[in-house]
Automatic annotation (TrEMBL):
<dbReference type="GO" id="GO:0097422">
    <property type="term" value="C:tubular endosome"/>
</dbReference>
<feature type="domain" description="VPS9">
    <location>
        <begin position="243"/>
        <end position="394"/>
    </location>
</feature>
<dbReference type="GO" id="GO:0005770">
    <property type="term" value="C:late endosome"/>
</dbReference>
<dbReference type="Pfam" id="PF02204">
    <property type="entry name" value="VPS9"/>
</dbReference>
<dbReference type="InterPro" id="IPR003123">
    <property type="entry name" value="VPS9"/>
</dbReference>
<dbReference type="GO" id="GO:0030133">
    <property type="term" value="C:transport vesicle"/>
</dbReference>
<dbReference type="GO" id="GO:0045022">
    <property type="term" value="P:early endosome to late endosome transport"/>
</dbReference>
<dbReference type="InterPro" id="IPR051248">
    <property type="entry name" value="UPF0507/Ank_repeat_27"/>
</dbReference>
<dbReference type="GO" id="GO:0005085">
    <property type="term" value="F:guanyl-nucleotide exchange factor activity"/>
</dbReference>
<dbReference type="InterPro" id="IPR037191">
    <property type="entry name" value="VPS9_dom_sf"/>
</dbReference>
<dbReference type="GO" id="GO:0005769">
    <property type="term" value="C:early endosome"/>
</dbReference>
<dbReference type="GO" id="GO:0000149">
    <property type="term" value="F:SNARE binding"/>
</dbReference>
<protein>
    <recommendedName>
        <fullName>VPS9 domain-containing protein</fullName>
    </recommendedName>
</protein>
<dbReference type="GO" id="GO:0005886">
    <property type="term" value="C:plasma membrane"/>
</dbReference>
Length: 492
């Protein structure tokens, strides 16, 4: 963010050109240059007074204090962590004024001495208040889906004419891509996107063109708009190239699913080997999505659901224990086997193709972004999956049951019963895990269902007794024909 912000920031641009002497003086003396972010500069006039306020020199009194470079050093600031706190100003300030430091850039002057540039969330004095503009709501947007991308592009009427021209060009592009390699296809798509990105950007005022955040929103929106139009053609080409990889993954997934593999067999702690149905359902939708941002969001949501379901189970299990009990910790290494289990259950048809498509047909993903982490995590999970050999997996823990048979239900009921006193109080000395807590809920559901059934049976028996003089002959005949009696069902 910082590099783009500096490159297109109106104040920094003015400082380098209109106030170049002050800029060079700051560099030569290694003074600190503070650059308010673009959104905080809207409607502000960049004057010499503004420049001198935002170039700071060290205070001789305290190492953490800095002074403005105007005559008399009218403003004094304290550098406190990621904030600059205003301590002295020409006019008394009623409330504490703190400026947040968004990022720090380092540079070197001609003598190879280091200086720093601070990107701040607002100007260094409350005297300077940015003007709200009509697209403030747009600046707060995030592009997490194709719907978000289309909504952003169509929000501006000036875009419509450009987007109308884009349609026929994409049709022509489709025809020319059929005989190309995927690498050539990628280059042509990127060239088209870059051309139209510049065309769309030039329809906006200069201050918006220089806004790094707006540029990023435009890039994400346009690339996903274009890829959604080209998806059927491009994704089919990707699938053709990675057909063998997809088949290998799908075949292995089906084999592991048939073997009933559970997360504990893949290395996850047995207490974390709980069902993750929401994550499985989310990942199963991957093939139906038509652009990179939707597919990437699917990966991120899948991971979020795994963590949410597991953390919920941990908190739930911990809630029934004493305050002194230690809550189990979810380690990073535990995530991969849980994710592999979800992949096995979701059985994606084109996993290798989807990963290639997401990695190669988007150009705006930052390495530090959470979505980028999701993509890397899935790639690691697939690599782990491909090393698995069903016949060589460790035995499944007795605590982990993929499907509960009648004898399993009886065993679970006994185990759960041993955790409680006759009074119904939990025995504190017996530890409980998320998996144990899940089994308790299953037992409680069975007991509740059994009680409902007993109530219905009792009600039915009362009705039968009341109507015995009417139906007695019929029931006797029915019991004789079946050779059994309803009241003796417990024997069977």
């Amino acid at each position: 963010m910082a590099t783009d912000e500096i490159e297109y920031n109106a104040y920094y641009h003015t400082l380098q050109n209109k106030f170049r002497r002050k800029y060079e003086q700051a560099l030569s003396r290694c003074w600190m240059i503070c650059v308010p972010c673009s959104r905080a500069l809207r409607g502000l006039n960049i004057t010499e007074e503004f420049v001198e306020l935002h170039i700071l020199r060290p205070s001789p009194s305290f190492s953490s204090h800095y002074a403005s470079t105007d005559e008399g050093s009218s403003h004094i600031f304290e550098l406190n962590g990621d904030s600059l706190i205003l301590h002295k100003a020409p006019v008394q300030i009623a409330e504490k004024y703190a400026v947040k430091i968004l990022s720090v850039e380092s540079g070197y002057n001609k003598e190879y001495q280091q200086y720093k540039i601070l990107i701040t969330d607002k100007p260094l004095s409350p005297k300077y208040q940015s003007q709200p503009v009509e697209d403030d709501g747009i600046q707060l947007r995030k592009i997490n889906s194709l719907a978000d991308a289309v909504g952003f592009l169509t929000h501006f009427p000036v875009h419509i004419e450009v987007l109308i021209k884009l349609g026929p060009e994409l049709q022509q592009l489709c025809s020319s891509l059929l005989s190309d390699s995927l690498q050539v296809v990628r280059e042509k798509v990127h060239d088209t996107m870059s051309c139209y990105w510049m065309t769309l950007l030039k329809t906006h005022p200069l201050d918006r063109q220089r806004d790094a955040h707006f540029q990023n929103l435009l890039s994400i929106s346009l690339e996903n708009f274009i890829m959604s139009r080209l998806h059927d053609l491009v994704f089919q080409m990707v699938c053709n190239k990675h057909n063998e990889d997809d088949a290998q993954i799908l075949g292995l997934v089906k084999e592991l699913a048939s073997a009933g593999v559970t997360a504990d067999q893949l290395g996850a702690p047995e207490d974390f080997a709980i069902p993750l149905p929401a994550a499985v359902v989310e990942l199963a939708s991957l093939d139906s999505l038509n652009c990179p941002v939707d597919k990437l969001s699917c990966l991120r949501t899948t991971l979020d659901l795994i963590l949410a379901e597991l953390k919920g189970a941990i908190v739930d299990a911990h809630s029934v224990l004493s305050k002194d009990s230690q809550m189990p910790t979810l380690m990073t290494d535990d995530l991969i086997p849980l994710l592999v289990t979800v992949i096995i259950q979701a059985k994606p048809l084109h996993m290798a193709s989807n990963l290639y498509y997401m990695e190669n047909f988007q150009w705006t993903l930052s390495p530090s972004d959470a979505t980028s982490f999701s993509l890397v995590t899935f790639k690691a999970a697939i690599q782990e999956l491909l090393t698995l050999k069903p016949k060589e997996l460790r035995p499944r823990s007795e605590k982990v049951r993929r499907e509960l048979r009648l004898e399993d239900l009886m065993k679970v009921t006994v185990e759960v019963g041993q955790r409680f006193e006759r009074s119904g109080e939990r025995r504190e000395e017996i530890p409980i895990s998320p998996l144990d807590r899940q089994m308790e809920r299953i037992t409680a559901m069975i007991e509740a269902s059994t009680q409902d059934l007993n109530d219905e049976t009792l009600h039915l028996t009362e009705d039968v007794d009341q109507n015995k003089h009417v139906t007695g002959g019929f029931l006797s005949s029915l019991q004789s024909n079946l050779g059994t009696c309803f009241t003796n069902q417990e024997e069977y």
